[in-house]
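Chapter review: from sequence to fold.
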Amino acid sequence: MLPLRSVYGGIFRAAIRKLQTSRSPCLHRLLSTRDGLQVGLADADTIFALSSGHGRCGVAVVRVSGPASATALRRMVGLTHRLPPPRTALLRSITDPCSKEVLDRGLVLWFPGSVPGMRPAEAGEFTRRAFQAGKLDLTEVEGLGDLIHAETEAQRRQALRQMSGELGRLYQDWSHKLKRCLAHVEAFIDFSEDELIEDGVLERVDRSVCDLQAEVKQHLKDERRGERLRCGVQVVIAGATNAGKSSLLNTLCQRPAAIVSPIAGTTRDVVETALDIGGFPVLLSDTAGLRDSSDLVEQEGVRRARERVHQADLTLLVVDSTRLPSDVQQAADFLSDHLRTVLPSLKQPETEKCLLVLNKTDLLPEAQTQKLQQELRRVSGLPAVCLISCQTNEGLKDFLTVLQSSVKTLCGDPLCGAPTLTQARHRAHLQQCAAALAQYQRYRDADLALAAEGVRLALTSLGRITGRVGAEEILDIIFKDFCIGK
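The token string follows.
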């Protein structure tokens, strides 16, 4: 429950199914009446909603906000005159306001507040009111939304950290620095001729802008870890036909998500499934086997496979281990050539974006499997190599450990280091901020007014992330720092 103490009027807790029954025509009539006077819903602004979500459960929470909240509270819990003490839980029977039938017993909490009007709450309106009342900034609102939709433990941790305001505080700190810079530049433009501005003001602004620009650029160099964690790591299974790609997908998701057949080219389209790998979200995609084909449908499947590989955060390159040369060095050369064919743009420093999965090891002599496993890991220039059998699950545990480590590296630890970007809009506004700061440096000596406009644009870009920016704060800094006019 959000701490919207100043805006919502009452909270009722009751069994969800009985509560939904009572919220039909009778409750609507009650909530459209204020102190015995009929109020049209079109002109009303009291809102009510089930805040604990729909579905079967033992406990439900209903929030009501607005001037009719007191009336609803008194009539549904049998209070004739006095309301419960503010912010104090009261155990009461909850009754139908028309038939007086007891619906349930639950806790009632009264949070005094007053908002004119009455109507059912729109989606997200309680949170919107919290933002408008200054209880949350936009990054905290987004963190709350991410927490609601979190499906893995790592997503939950990142959402909680953002909802706590850490990311917003970072941007607010930058905004405060920019406000001071802008105030000083504008004061210099307006009052320097009157000798009311102390020496060295612009030099201090120069240093602040330069330092802040470096911080923003460093913040942007996060390799999209926060966005990956929020939306899921794109992991693509690729390779030649009949290498065992669909078998690997089915093994990982533990269900027959893709058709497995000895006929080459069975998979024609991309098959996707969402997984939780060690607490991190993964969107796993099985793709068509990469080969030349005269079949138009298969050609389209191969095109989609290559496109998906190009977009992937991590590629699992599946290879039929029975096709490897027996000599380890030749096997390494074979894998290097195969890697260049599937991932032509992959560079050696980026090998962590790919895992080599040698499948069908159950068809190899055990001695050869062990030798391959030992020797291939020593070959430089190759990504991590995992030998598995989707038929017997041999090597699967080690493969999952390597996969989890790779996914964690791509997402990062949401609780360590500086808070990361989680939204594409954050990145766009920060890029605009960096470009605006560059404008200040570009026009600093040529036209100070244009340089100041760069600082103003940078401040606006940051304000769009948090939803907070105002000209009054800049004026406050000007008069506070320089005491102009006393």
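Two observations follow directly from the output. The radius of gyration is 31 Å. The mean pLDDT is 81.
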